[in-house]
Amino acid sequence: MARRRQIYEGKAKILYEGPEPGTIIQYFKDDATAFNAQKKGTISGKGVLNNRISEHIFTLLGQIGVPTHFIRRLNMREQLIRQVEIVPIEVVVRNVAAGSLSKKLGIEEGTQLPRTLIEYCYKDDALGDPLVSEEHIACFGWATQDEMHDIADMAIRVNDFLCGLFAGIGIRLIDFKLEFGRLYDGDYSRIILADEISPDGCRLWDMATNEKLDKDRFRRDLGGEVEAYQEVARRLGLLPEGLDTTVLDLDTHRKKREKE
């Protein structure tokens, strides 16, 4: 079997040349990073869980008419996707104050925002993914005005859908990150959803306990990262019920930290 050609390796994924023109194989790693890769580690099995969760969410989004790069899952860690030209903007959708928003503006974490807030960050780890305005995006030609309209419309639509999806399984969607790409058909291009949607790029809190079920457990040294990711997958119906490995026991990790 011919060795696949690697196209790109990021913090959480590796991209390989796909079997057909216009396709790419996306491989999910167990590597975990935070604070623009200043903190690094491994969450065992994270790649497998994120692959399943992202497949599930992208499939559901496709069913409600949101265009995405997802074609199909190939195996435990890989999925086949459409090749796109990534728009160099991270789109952050916020429903509740947390993370950098709380720190920068002094808003207590967990405060419900009066309306959904969309932020744009320029994708550059060396610069710390700085916050930018639509004026910056237009000035430097990172995306056209029409493309930004499509991006904002899709971001709100995805947020509405995900808020309902997660609320139905007892999870509060605090905020999340999206990436978009240009899918070309000759000289014509259209904007579609790309990258992934998983606990790596979402803040997910248990509605009853406010336990964090996302990568903040790694960022803040809370422990229980694997259990949290498994719990999200279990509630979404992606893991069998009743297995010891899928039982959420974050209380143990919290008590352990209190003793330290």
TrEMBL record:
The keyword Ligase applies. InterPro entries: SAICAR_synt/ADE2_N, SAICAR_synt_PurC, SAICAR_synth, SAICAR_synthetase, SAICAR_synthetase_CS. It is an enzyme of class 6 (ligase). Keywords: ATP-binding, Ligase, Nucleotide-binding, Purine biosynthesis. Its EC number is 6.3.2.6. It catalyses: 5-amino-1-(5-phospho-D-ribosyl)imidazole-4-carboxylate + L-aspartate + ATP = (2S)-2-[5-amino-1-(5-phospho-beta-D-ribosyl)imidazole-4-carboxamido]succinate + ADP + phosphate + 2 H(+). One of its GO terms (molecular function) is phosphoribosylaminoimidazolesuccinocarboxamide synthase activity. The keyword Ligase applies. It comes from the Bacteria. Pathway: Purine metabolism; IMP biosynthesis via de novo pathway; 5-amino-1-(5-phospho-D-ribosyl)imidazole-4-carboxamide from 5-amino-1-(5-phospho-D-ribosyl)imidazole-4-carboxylate: step 1/2. CDD domains: SAICAR_synt_PurC. Residues 6-235 form the SAICAR synthetase/ADE2 N-terminal domain. It holds the Pfam family SAICAR_synt. NCBIfam families: purC (TIGR00081). PANTHER family: MULTIFUNCTIONAL PROTEIN ADE2 (PTHR43599), SI:DKEY-6E2.2 (PTHR43599:SF3). Belongs to the SAICAR synthetase family. This is Phosphoribosylaminoimidazole-succinocarboxamide synthase. The gene is purC.
